[in-house]
Amino acid sequence: MTAIDADRELDGSSAGGQFLRTALDLAALKNETVRLEHVRGDRSTPGLRHQHLAVLETMAEICDADVSGSELGAETVAFDPELADGDSRATGTATPQLEGGEYAVDIGTAGSVTLLFDSLLPLATILESPLRVTATGGTDVKWSPPLDYFRHVKLPLLRRYGLTAACEVERRGFYPDGGGRTTLHLAPSTIEPIELAERGSLEDVRIYSTESESLADRDVAFRQVEGALERLGVEEREGESGSDLEIAERCETTAASPSPGSALVVRIDHGTGVAGFTALGERGKPAERVGEDAADAANRFLEREDAAPVDRHMADQLLVFLAIAGGRVRVPEVTDHVAASCELLEDFGAAIEIEGEDGDRGETDDARPATVTAEPSIGSSASR
User: Is residue 314 part of a domain?
Assistant: First the structure.
């Protein structure tokens, strides 16, 4: 393929797949060409894996982009979206315009469907018509959000700020065969400023437990929930309002899947939003332990006196929306992912500030909470 002249040159030598996904989003939102060198350079197997290649190819198809480096193992990638200019629904100013449509993606392995869908969500802010993407791959696999986290934690939180999105599940896909099949529905959306600087009063807990059909005779989904409830001590915990923290929803699902597997998500609802904590079943690991692992993470979140309103994984995933709409998010800690995402957003012109317990960004301790503030500076909300 003919070499692609890039508007921006980026170095991924100290980053992973999230850096690639966010860079592609930002390129689309600004209708700019980007070249990434040393893709996933800090991983033991650098370059594009199946799920990263699926993201690149899907974004290229949706955005009518020219691409170089679209092959497994590629460590240099260029992405040149060809989007028409339109008028922002929010401001009337010029902004990229993306037509919707229907697309199908087969990741080909147990590569993460939820990470693919994550990369598509920001496109809702420049959509002119609904977008539907059906993906086949891993729905509940390591190193990515389980499907119920995506459906019951992330999407509900983003809907509060204007995202119009839904996820339809046909089949679950566990490691190693994958084979899950889900559909993401996106509609044109205007994101409102995100205000998540304080947690607010604790309200209730929701638990989503899933087992493959092959594990149903062992009551895995039920036992995972029981393990979580015992470790949470829900009946003994009291929220700030003085009332017991109650179980608002308990969902146990037996799902068709080519591979045996299980997953559990604990969702904590509080005054300003939601936070989620997850665990996956593993061969030889008691189902009760799966529930306990997710509950332990939830307990650590609940016991933190600094009261960040989002979990550490959501903190990173919200940043691109923060740059689109502006606002504030208090994060549990400045992880490597958070720091890398902030730097990437700044490379694309976003106005980002991080304030830690001890003052400015340079003094922020990665183990301490921090508040990330942004002005609307990217996409259709930038001139709000």
Answer: no
Q: Is 11 marked as a binding-site residue?
A: no
For the entire predicted model, the pTM comes to 0.92
Q: Is 185 a catalytic residue?
A: no
What residues contact 188, with CB distance under 8 A and at least 6 apart? 89, 124, 127, 128, 129, 130, 164
**Are 226 and 251 part of one and the same domain?**
yes
Ligand-binding annotation for 294, yes or no, is: no
Which one, of 366, 371, 350, 369, lies nearest residue 122 by Cα?
A: 350
Last residue of a domain, one of 192, 210, 232: 192
Burial per residue of 9-33, b for 16 or more beta-carbon CB atoms within 10 angstroms, e otherwise: ebebeebbbbbbbbbbbbbbbbbbb
Q: Say if residue 315 carries a ligand binding annotation.
A: yes
**Nearest-5° angle of CA 136, CA 137, CA 138?**
140
Number of domains the chain contains? 4
In the set 50, 52, 270, 337, the catalytic residue is: 337
What is the span of the domain harbouring residue 11? 1-81
User: Is 185 or 200 the better-scoring residue by pLDDT?
Assistant: 185
